[in-house]
Amino acid sequence: MLLLAVVAVVAIVWVLIAQPWRSQASTPAPEVSRSASATPSVSPSPSEAPAASDAVPGENADAAPEGETDAGLPACGNADVSVEALTDQSGYAADQNPQLSIRLTNTSAEDCTLNVGTTGQSFTITSGNDTWWRSTDCQSEPSDMVVTLAAGQSVTSATPVTWDRTRSSVDTCQNPNRAKAPAGGASYHLAVAIGGIPSGATAQFLLE
Fold first, then answer.
1. DSSP structure string for the chain
2. Is the pTM of this model over 0.85?
3. CB distance 192 to 199 below 8 Å
4. C-alpha of 76 from chain center
5. Mean pLDDT of 100-127
6. For the segment 40-54, what is each residue's pLDDT rounded down to a tens digit?
7. Span 63-68, mean pLDDT?
8. Contact 101, 116 (CB under 8 A)
9. What is the C-alpha separation between 37 and 122, in angstroms, rounded?
10. C-alpha–C-alpha distance, residues 161 and 165, integer Å
């Protein structure tokens, strides 16, 4: 009897000390450590430089490659080409500026070549013996353009040159107060030359 009492006391003491049910209830759930997922830093690739073939073509894009010429064709001479001075009107009101052009005709029986670029062009306006304006006085960045004129072909400059009705000189190109040409029915004459060939006659016009 005494032995059973001792066994019972020992069992009670073990339960109080060991507390076996707390092994699950008191065990905290494992804490998951989550490291922030860093957004990868992406360095953009440098823009590719345009290839040479992608460059915007210049004014001479349609010109023949350097070294290539119209082999065998002679240069046009004074006897081969007639040059004519042209104005868009024969008279101009006070608010109108004369538009000046050149017409070329190959009067020979054979093709020939001529430099029709601005380096070889000149427009000159006179009134009596007084030279009022020259296109070469304030010309900027002149260029060459050698073309073939077929026998009998006639061509006219595509873009007219505008005369602002002022007196030109190499010293007054940037002067906005250049002398104005007299009007009121005053008569003027246009002479032109291209590729070293002058016009055979002048074109007369009036300023009102």
1. -HHHHHHHHHHHHHHHHH-TTHHHHSSPPPPP-----PPP--PPPPPPPPPGGGSPP-TTTTSPPTT---TTPPBP-TTTEEEEEEES-SEE-TT---EEEEEEEE-SSS-EEEE-SGGGEEEEEEETTEEEEETTTT--S----EEEEPTT-EEE-SSPEEP-SB---TT-TT-TTPPBPP-SSEEEEEEEEETTEE-SS-EEEEE-
2. no
3. yes
4. 33
5. 96
6. 222 232 222 223 222
7. 34
8. no
9. 75
10. 12
Query: How many other C-beta atoms can be found within 10 angstroms of the C-beta atom of residue 87?
Result: 20
Give the integer Cα–Cα distance in Å for 191 and 203.
7
Stated length of the chain: 208
Tokens of 28: 């905290």
**Amino acid letter, residue 39:** T
Q: β-strands 121-127, 186-194: how paired?
A: antiparallel
